[in-house]
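Async update (no meeting this week)

Hi team, since we skipped the sync, here's where things stand on the single-chain job. The sequence we agreed to prioritize is pasted below, unchanged from the tracker. I ran it this morning and attached the output directly underneath so nobody has to dig for it. Comments welcome in thread, and please keep replies under the output.
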Amino acid sequence: HELLWRPAALQTALFTSYGTDYSFLAEMVAGSPAAARRRGVTVVDNYDHHRTPAGLDEHTYTVHNAAVRANFSVVLPPFFSDDTAAADRTRVHHGTMHPKMWLLEFSEGGACGSGFLRLAISSANLGRYDAKINNQVWACDFVRAQDAVEAACALGVSQLKAELKERRVDAAGCSEKAELAERLVEARRADSAGFGADLLFFVERLVGRAAPELFRQWEALLSRYDLTPPAGTHLIFSAPGRYSGPEAERYGLRALQRHLKVLSDRPVAQRPTAVEYACSSLGQLDDILQPLLGVRPNYKQAPRMAVRGAFLEGLHKPPHVKGAAARLVWPSLTASLPAFARGKGMLTIGGGKNTMTGPSEFKSQQLKACMAHNIAADPRRSATLHHVKMAAGIVRPLQRGGPQREVAPLCAWVYAGSHNLSGAAWGKMEAATGSDDESGDEDEEFVVMSYEVGVLLLPPEPRPFALPWVTAAAPYDPTEVKPFSTSRYLAILRGRDSRAWDLRDNRMTVEEVTGEVRRQWERLRDGAGGAGLGRGEAAGSTGAVVALPEAATLPPPL
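Output:
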């Protein structure tokens, strides 16, 4: 609701989500000019794309529909083209309509008071439940193109010079403030040309193929704004298809890797020494662990996956540092107990079937080399579902000084968006259509199955970022310290997975297992002393844990 600022000034909006609660969205835009007029609100959906054909629906949700009382133009983008092979059409059933992006045009406010365009990219879906779980949000406001110089003039001279220096522009010849402002606007536009083009291209992929006339409206709208985010900001998006050559560099992990290449030219002291990646869902790992994290599943090199991990681009790993340079940050089962004890949001999202399922026993074996604890940086967030999708190239982890004094992690880059750990989301290399498995690199294609979007923040120099988990994330072996998953927790309560707590004894009864769960929780609570971060033993290892003073009892056995 806060992102919508003043609904009375909201003229035009575009929303994307993994499923949409239309009554919730109607409440958010209620009273806005956008909701009252035709084509004022565009919703890109197609959650059930393998059953619902692509197209445009402008008849279901209108001001005459008592459930919403708003006009929604619902765009259902295609997942394949007319000439896509039948086998590929079947495969994209595994893909999802997963981006979480908002474009909001306001008729007032902004740096010049004449209106602005707000772009928000997050991990939060359009539903009430997402306000109750851990999500990240990135937002950026853009002034009208005609107001760009005036908006820059609102900055102080020292601010203008500082940003010009950051963008490596020589301002020595500028004697007047107006000259500095004009030079800065020129520099911003030159640096951000790729960002604006990528945003327009992604909106075209979302809207243009199913509703070309509606896309032309958005194309005209975007052209009116100065799409110049902070220096080093890049859009990372995915869209279903098979790509080769330069076209493949636009999508997913290939785009991420392309942008991160600039790190190799920076001083060693400014390059990341480790990468930590948090997400809320895991797909098939064989075709993504190596190209993204640089980790071989089960220490074996997957076919067609000899490329360096995209997250490792530009990384400088000190010789004395052992283990994987890129780690998957995932909560252990024990660290998640406060959520169960308080009965909040961890079991399912919104009480439905969507869960943070977690790695199976087989996937835990594959993740042995790269798993790390996800401990909520804010203790108040320890009792809710972890739904963020973020990665950070960390130069220096969290530094603790005196009491109540902490210095945020210094990061060379941060990714924040909708991409979970899967080849469907990030993309993967496959044999080109019609080639055999023995073909060379020239016969490979980059395959993407899902719509996704995120933002890569790659500032000219490392900066402190407030990450939602504690860094440096402590590694753990997921075959010994069990990762959180809904099914694993329920199996423990039902007595079907006693090995999750004691690898030496698989004969524990339901009561014994449940009792052990309770004892572990009590130990965590006592070890933390009800004061947030503390120390405690959990599932055979010692590590930082989070507990809340008002901790309730665990639910009874099922």
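Quick observations from my side:
The chain has two domains: 2-223, 241-331+386-478.
The chain has 14 helices and 22 strands.
Reply here if anything looks off.
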